[in-house]
Amino acid sequence: LPEHLKKAVIDAHNTLREKVATQRLNSSIFGNLPGTKSMFKLKYDSTNEALATATIADDCSRTSLKINALNRAQNFYTTRLPDLEEKHIDDYYIIAVDEWTKSVTKPFDANATWSNRAAAPFANMIYYKTLTFGCSHRHCPNEQKLSISCVYGARPKLGEPLYIKNSADKRGCVSDQTCQKVVSKSKCSFTKEEGSIETPGNYSFSSRPLAAIKIGPLCETDAITVD
């Protein structure tokens, strides 16, 4: 995908994950989803993009490639579209993410347990062990269709929580150390030199201590899988 499309789809996914982490989803639809500091920012991955491309057939239908067999997950969106202007394709990626979010028809419990199979598209997008994803699309003029496929680097399990809810053990994006309890090679903050100030009385100068700047609410990591 070109960079502007990657940015659009990355932002759409991470905005949703931030809403989950900070409990900003409509509780009447999504139920009592708990907040979490153990949600990680998704990164774009070319391998997953290649797999997504392979899941869209020439007629914009879904191919027989079994993504689940690779321990990955897939979301697929198709809409009627006679003509496509490439400058508008990013809008359709955002629409696809919105449609996948709407797959939730039954509220979640307070442990974020995935119990309704129909909500798989939503579960795939917010699963905390998913750290990478990639997407592709195909426009089929003869069929007057547009299909979008996204492949995710991990697969949630039906009947299990989609993420670790906030708890007393302070796991997740509280500090770099607690982020690394969830995923190695991860961080929750970066340091910034605030400059020099004059010390009262002695008129000498000293550097301010390094300040930790919070990245959250999503941790960041260079890892591609959760152990």
TrEMBL record:
This is SCP-like protein. It comes from Oesophagostomum dentatum. SUPFAM superfamilies: PR-1-like. Pfam families: CAP (PF00188). Residues 4-153 form the SCP domain.
